[in-house]
Write a structure and sequence with these properties.
Elements lengths: L1 H76 L10
Amino acid sequence: MKIRRLQTLTLVVAIVASLPVTYALAQNDSGAKQSIKNAGTETKNAAKDTGHGIKQGTKKAYHKTKNGTKKAARKVEGKPTQTTSPQ
């Protein structure tokens, strides 16, 4: 009878001791899921920031080219056209 009680007590202690471990493992699973969600959100935001930077750089290059072309055209307007002379 004493052995049976000791086995039962040991089993109860083992179950009670394992509850916090089980709870902690369940928390880690949801923590991992949240980490993946966070990583996805950060990746999305980084892609948006990169796209915004590319858009701004492209606009700047376009405007610089446009202004440079206008400036060169104004310089050439006053000059006579070059003709090739016969050799």
